[in-house]
């Protein structure tokens, strides 16, 4: 998925980031699979979550397949540049992460179950990369909505770190932050692997299970 052979592996400062633009970039009107308007408000009784765990094409497919997930979308978050383009994010000069925003029904799939999928489906010890995808846009991140999500996310990180240490793995580098502004990615990125079933998916877990959401 990378557009450039060499990527920055340190975060750019706000002062040095690209200026971006005042207006949002165009994106899809509707979800390719469900036909739900992509910019729908969160329905009453549902909640939202945002995750970064490598190339967002495969990450979005991971979450749209989970029962209880109502809507997914890909975009950019946790950087400095307003309304960035994909090409700008790929330079490492915006500070953004490739992320997936998930709207879900907690009565069907609790937040802990989303976190379990997050931890088990990528390697959160790699810093500014996932496998061969190198750059700050591929860092591991959980972006939370409210104190409850923050506390549960931090507890899950501690649990998974313990499991990783027992398996001889490294230190978790996942950032856990209050959800910053989410910028929609371009139309062609939305539900990319539904439109291109044979397309690139860089997701690869560690083989270590995460006990959160299992009642253990």
Q: Can you offer a commentary on this structure?
A:
With 216 residues, the chain is α+β, with helices and mostly antiparallel strands. It has a single domain (24-192), classed as Peptide Methionine Sulfoxide Reductase, Chain A (2-Layer Sandwich). 23% of the residues lie in helices and 18% in strands. The chain has helices at residues 56-64, 86-90, 111-120, 146-166, 192-195, and strands at residues 47-53, 69-77, 97-104, 129-130, 133-134, 140-144, 175-178, 183-184. A 6-stranded mixed beta sheet has the order 7-6-1-3-2-8. Strands 4-5 form a two-stranded antiparallel ribbon. Helix 3 runs parallel beside helix 4 (146-166). It is globular.
How does the major sheet shape up? 6 strands, mixed
Amino-to-carboxy terminus distance: 37 Å
Our count of domains comes out at 1
The CATH architecture term is 2-Layer Sandwich
What is the CATH first-level class name? Alpha Beta
Q: Could you name the CATH topology?
A: Peptide Methionine Sulfoxide Reductase, Chain A
Average per-residue pLDDT, rounded, comes to 95
Q: Which residues sit in consecutive blocks of at least 5 with pLDDT less than 50? A: none
Rg result? 16 Å
* Tally of contiguous helical segments: 5
Question: What letter string, H or E per element, gives the SSE order?
Answer: EHEHEHEEEHEEH
- Shape designation: globular
The overall strand count is: 8
Helix content: 10-25%
GO cellular component, one term: cytoplasm
Organism: Gemmobacter megaterium
Function: Has an important function as a repair enzyme for proteins that have been inactivated by oxidation. Catalyzes the reversible oxidation-reduction of methionine sulfoxide in proteins to methionine.
Protein name: Peptide methionine sulfoxide reductase MsrA
